[in-house]
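Figure S7 source data.
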Amino acid sequence: MKLLVVGSGGREHALAWRLAQSPRVHKVFVAPGNGGTAREPGLENLAITDLAELADFADREQVAFTVVGPEAPLAAGIVDLFRERGLRIFGPTRAAAQLESSKDFAKAFMKRHAIPTAEYETFTQADAAHAYVERRGAPIVIKADGLAAGKGVVVAETLEQAHAAIDSMLVDNRMGSAGARVVIEDFLAGEEASFIVMVDGRNVLALASSQDHKRLLDSDAGPNTGGMGAYSPAPVVTPEIHAKVLREIIMPTVNGMARDGIPFSGFLYAGLMIDDAGQPRTLEFNCRMGDPETQPIMARIKSDLASVFELAIDGRLDEAQIDWDRRTALGVVIAAGGYPDDPRKGDVISGLPADGNPPDAECLVFHAGTVEQDGRTLTSGGRVLCVTGLGDSVKIAQGLAYKRIDAIRFDGMQFRSDIGYRAIARKR
Ligand code: AMP
Ligand code: GLY
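Tokens for the predicted adenosine monophosphate complex:
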């Protein structure tokens, strides 16, 4: 069968690569894809981004099902459109995707269903927001309501920073309409983890735990980014915490969405803060897989992934199971110079594998912001590559990834040298 993956990042490269290994899959189209999906056997890039044209293509080519990587097409209603046309697709409807596309929707939902999260209030008027932060004190967190590509959250350590963030969003409109409404919530301390499950409207299949590094620089310093590296499993998610997250966060969310009349299907990603006592709270929901968390997660899947998606689309996830490689997978993102503010483009990358990633390689090179041009691979975006090692310990996986990176070169490249340090400190 033929499949379609929508998106162009490292997440989509990893998803499509793993899907292409399913015995019944003979082609995975990636729309629009990148320089890595262009050279991967079994994958074919498709220069289409318009949603209606994608539906026409899926229809014409008899694509068995479509998987959507990023949030933007989900929030724009790609799942509603495909379903109206009788096309099989895995992802949430536009209404269900509000769990990610509106922080206010997500917070009100969590409050209504008693799902652990930080106390908050929502504001459209700067005066009231300023008064609220004066009352609550710092540290405090200011979030633009709408999608802001990871730039809509300010963790204010002082009241001054909080007031400035409020003015920037509500008075100066720096975030446009995404910031016309802000959620202000209490600061939570602890360690973060990404908890991602597949949902078919009713049943849940948990993926392996993972953790990403959002800050640009070593020791989690510098500005927030989309993610500079990730690994799976995340030792902070002990079996007890895993059970607690399913019981207190994931199941109430899935049941609550169904009860509210907007059943959720697709990947549900709960960004968690786990405190010292082992209590998880939800920082955010995403209605898609994480990037770069997907890269180590896909590296560890041993099952036929296409069959899992088919069961999910059929509402039969209770029959699905995933066999995981017991090793740790650790991915290091290589970003372009100037990332995250103003990434440079068009630099030639050397040292890449000649063709794609073999299924059983112990180091995988997933592409994100790259393009193929005249047989060369050039940078074309902020996060360029995610080099993912698989090893019997976090340390070994880390060593494999960094050794592979030694051979890769492009002008301005930047990457962190400490991905996985929290897990290594836990001496797993
Ligand atoms: P979000 O997009 O809501 O996940 O926020 C981005 C990042 O901001 C998170 O990964 C956290 O590192 C941080 N963050 C968000 N909300 C809070 C909070 N309530 N307390 C502490 N840190 C937070
Ligand atoms: N790595 C964080 C995210 O995908 O939202």
